[in-house]
Specification:
- By secondary structure, this protein is an alpha/beta fold.
- It has helices at residues 10-22, 33-42, 59-68, 84-92, 105-119, 152-163, 171-178, 189-201, and strands at 2-6, 26-30, 47-50, 75-79, 97-100, 126-129, 132-135, 140-143, 146-148, 210-213, 217-220.
- Helix content is 40%, strand content 20%.
- The chain has 2 domains: 2-119, Rossmann fold, CATH 3.40.50; 126-220, Arc Repressor Mutant, subunit A.
């Protein structure tokens, strides 16, 4: 998934970005509210981690502008404002969650999984397609009870496909959700990773789950797409 971090404290911003990247997320960073508003106007994210007290525009203004566009992107306020009235204001303004600094990274990850799980209409952290099971919390994958070892990018692409099970996703959409603005890969990088996934997910199984839809992209599902 692709996450935007809007936090003016650069050391904290960089730390969160580093940890999320290590967990396989595509991450973009900005350091003031005006920049956050600009980025969110033309880029879709799976979630936003948003500070409230930022220069140029505060987190409330950023969230207001985001919701005005009709986007339902999950937003987690990450802030030092710890009064009950601040929490109520933050949640009532349209945020999906509210975390007070200092915070535990493990808690941030759990809450991030929770808000994105809700946005994808999932009731739990496990996604299943036929006999393929992906555990979002443990970041483990198995098929027919056998564990499958994936690289970070392979896991991220598989998770995105499984969250959109039965829906054809284009190469461009996969790139946009897995890599950040700094990505400078080749034009066929998605095809390469899909081929890696096919070897690990489908080889040795009669039923193939990862399908190419010519001219449109890829889909993961049991049975062939129409």
């Amino acid at each position: 998934m692709r996450i935007l971090i809007a936090e003016d404290e650069r050391s904290l911003n960089n730390l969160i970005a580093k940890k999320l990247t290590a967990e396989g997320y595509g991450v973009d960073c900005c350091f003031d509210g005006e920049e956050a508003i600009h980025i969110l106007s033309y880029t879709d994210y799976d979630a936003v981690i948003l500070d409230i007290m930022m220069p140029k525009a505060d987190g409330y203004e950023v969230l207001k502008c985001l919701r005005k566009t009709g986007k339902k992107t999950p937003v987690i306020f990450l802030t030092a404002k710890d009064a009950i009235s601040d929490r109520v204001k933050g949640l009532d303004s349209g945020a999906n969650d509210y975390i007070i600094k200092p915070f535990s990274f493990e808690e941030l990850m759990a809450r991030l999984r929770a808000v994105t799980r809700t946005s994808f209409g999932m009731a739990e952290n496990t996604i299943t397609v036929a006999d393929l099971v992906l555990d979002c919390a443990a970041q483990k994958v198995s098929r027919a009870g056998q564990d499958i070892i994936l690289s970070g990018k392979e896991y991220a692409i598989l998770e995105y496909l499984m969250r959109n099970s039965g829906i054809i996703v284009s190469r461009r959409k996969i790139e946009d959700h897995i890599w950040n603005f700094n990505y400078e890969g080749g034009t066929n990088v998605v095809d390469v990773y899909i081929s890696f996934l096919r070897r690990k997910i489908d080889d040795g199984h009669d039923i193939k789950l990862i399908h190419t839809v010519r001219g449109r992209g890829y889909v993961i599902m049991e049975g062939k797409p129409r």
